[in-house]
Amino acid sequence: MHPTLPKLAKTDFPGITRHKLQTLQVNLGYLCNLSCLHCHVNAGPTRKELMNKATIDQLFEFIDQQGIETLDLTGGAPEMNPHFQYAVTEARKRGLAVIDRCNLTILEESGYEYLHDFLANNNVQIIASLPCYSSENVDAQRGDGVFDKSISALKKLNTLGYGKELDLSLVFNPQGTQLPPNQTSLEVEYKEHLFEHFGIVFTRLLTITNMPIKRFGSTLISRGQFDDYMDTLKTAYQAVNLDQLMCKSTLSVDWEGYVYDCDFNQMLELPAGIADKKKHISDCLQLDFEQQPIIIADHCYGCTAGSGSSCGGALT
User: Which residues contact 128 (CB under 8 A, 6 or more apart)?
Assistant: First the structure.
């Protein structure tokens, strides 16, 4: 795999600082039942990295001390971590909002049948990847049969109230080097198509720009498209997106418990604060993250191009 940080480190992206910390986004591990082309984590079925229970308990010490409001669980497939249920249950006991970034197909895997009811019973917000509403495009990006499994999982979630009284967001990623289309108009298309063809409803659509790091970034380098893609992102830069960036209110934690300004910085191994010194969550209990400078590089243009992009979709 081609390293992307050497092509991103030198940047003219404007300096930014964090507002009040509200969300802790936690990567529970890189193990996943899929190996998607656009994955910036390079997750897959052979990955062994998984957060242990001791580290999860340290997360909750930090959450209690810092007054975190939302626990955002990601991976890999976060549900494949053996302590996933424990993390969700502990968060809900504290009254936290819990987000599960779900690839949908995990809900159809043997041994994970319980997940539908567990997520619904704990009022977990689901943010589910469905990069297109056509089977051809989804399977091309994520693997054969992924679309059909995703539709099956969505139907089961609908029967439990997801997309109605329970929050169900779908995520769109472009096929390649294009920026996402307008989120509002694409949401209308998604809702019309999925309801007409499958009777599926969902709460909202989130459009997310493909980031030029890890698997996707390496693919761009292999194809000689990396520099052109960066030109696309920089040309589409919108300063109005700066104040809405997800990193302004979120801290990212890797599977070992080290902290980063965002999930993308985590994948580039750019620690929060001083870029050459990692901090563990257990050493940050008393640390005030408000107004702390956020580590930047050229990939930050991916979050500010066009309508903007974050784990919560378009910014404007």
Answer: 101, 102, 103, 104, 150, 153, 154, 168, 169, 170, 171
Tokens of 194: 């999925």
151 has a pLDDT exceeding 60? yes
pLDDT digits (tens, 9 = 90+) for 72-103: 999 889 999 999 999 999 999 999 999 999 99
Look at residue 42 in the predicted model and tell me its pLDDT: 66
Q: Is residue 261 part of a domain?
A: yes
Distance CA 204, CA 34 (A): 24
Find out whether the peptide bond into 76 is cis, omega within 30 degrees of 0: yes
Instruction: Decide: residue 95, CB within 10 A, 0-12 exposed, 13-18 middle, 19+ buried.
Output: exposed
Segments forming the whole domain that contains residue 210:
19-304
Model confidence at 37, pLDDT cuts 50, 70, 90, reads low
* The amino acid at 35: S
52 is a domain residue: yes
CA–CA distance, 272 with 261 (Å, rounded to integer)? 5
Assigned token pair, 260: 């980063």
Domain count, the chain: 1
Q: Is residue 177 part of a domain?
A: yes
Distance CA 24, CA 237 (A): 27
Where do runs of H (alpha helix) occur along 12-114? 53-66, 84-93
Peptide bond into 111 cis (omega under 30): no
CB 129 within 8 A of CB 102: yes
**In a domain? residue 264:** yes
| pLDDT digit string, tens, across residues 165-213 | 999 999 998 877 889 999 999 999 999 999 999 999 999 999 999 999 9
- Tell me if the pTM is above 0.85: yes
Closest CA to 128 of 97, 95, 93, 166: 166
CATH code at position 245 = 3.20.20.70
